[in-house]
Amino acid sequence: MLSPHPPLPERSAELRRRFAEEARSERPDLATLCLLVGAVADGTLDEAGVDAAQIELDALAGRLPYRPGTPHAWASALRELLGERCGFHGTPGDYRRLESSLLHEVLRRRRGLPILLSVVWLEVARRAGAPVYGVGLPGHFVVGLGETGATAGAKPAGAEPDTRGGAAPERRVLVDPFDGGRVLTGADTELLVAGATGAPLDPSMLAPADPLNVVLRVLNNIRAWAEARPERSDVSLWALDLSLLLPSRPAELRYERARLLVRRGDFLDGADELEAYAEVVAAVDGPAADRMRDEARAARALLN
Prior knowledge:
Blueprint: H1 9-23, H2 30-41, H3 47-62, H4 71-85, H5 103-109, H6 114-127, E1 132-137, E2 140-146, E3 172-176, E4 182-184, H7 186-197, H8 211-227, H9 233-245, H10 253-263, H11 267-282, H12 286-301
Protein name: Transglutaminase-like domain-containing protein
Domain Protein SirB1 N-terminal: 53-220
Family: Belongs to the UPF0162 family.
């Protein structure tokens, strides 16, 4: 199956305008932002398709039991509905597909990357009234239910209640949507982090993920997919363009975009952007700015 291709320029420009507007709103909506990413990626996703995706998330939330209770009860209800009855999960092969990073395709295929499956869990649970948040562990995105990592005490993660001195109720549960919503123990979470970083779990890794950070991470995954496929540098470019529309994003993305333009043969625009970014960098790193100016000169020389 061919990977999705972007819409026509006029439609793409309108989608980017809406993406920037939503990203700068007082309370950015995660599902809306992810669906706009999908529409920029896939020219077949029209307004009816975007609405249908939102309606499906609403419908899935309506199939959950009414406020099942504890964080573990929420986790069990979500796993039964999304992981078992609906079949949402991931496989290693999903990392090779651009569709695995597009919310509308994840809803259609019931497959995707950990972060997009987590978006499904987050949006369904939020609509149903669950205390839910995303957790961006290094190399693997999961979902928290209950108290956030900052307030849930010393235990790193997991569903086991602290029963010392009585049956104290659990305060937080982490689940892995990529594994069908499996509840993670503290040891599971530590193993995920160690596998990705070789380092122990730090409590700061359990902090709730801001919606804009989630979207930036989605776009980073899309760029990683495209970088492994030089023939799809168009995907790298639109993913960078959307990332630059986010109010908080790494400044060096401007440098990456300029270099990408040069690689795509747009030497003049790439050189202009290299020089513009060099002016920004010059105040803090003169040698780096000089290297960027050299790159700009080399890019212009390719026009001759």
